[in-house]
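explain this:

___
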Amino acid sequence: MQRRMLSKEDEVTTGGDEMEVRREDQDKINKFSRLHQRETLLEDELKTKHKDKEDLDEISNELELADEDDLIPYKIGDSFISLPLPEVQSLLSSSTEKIEDEVSTVEEKLTGIREEMQQLKVALYARFGRSINLET
């Protein structure tokens, strides 16, 4: 295969596909990247919270089989404290409600981030077309 230099006409036609990246474009690209990182972190946090909620639901179901008179070990911080069944059930229900609130908060944040990312995608694809890849 023979190598040759491009002629001036070839340089003009080849270089015509490239677009100059303006400062505002670079800012949008950087913002998209930051949002993508936050989205990934929030998705991981959401998975963890769903797992915690499943665990609490499973524990609540197991406690329905326990006797009313039994003392149930309940974890507070790093310690386990033996508490009566009704008190443990109320603590579990409040923990479940707290996690459900946290899940809804994280989901709202994710929705906002995804909407903002979509707007940035539209703007950046309109400017750069196929020259940029924003698929995550």
In short: The first strand starts at residue 71 and ends at 76. The chain has three helices and two strands.
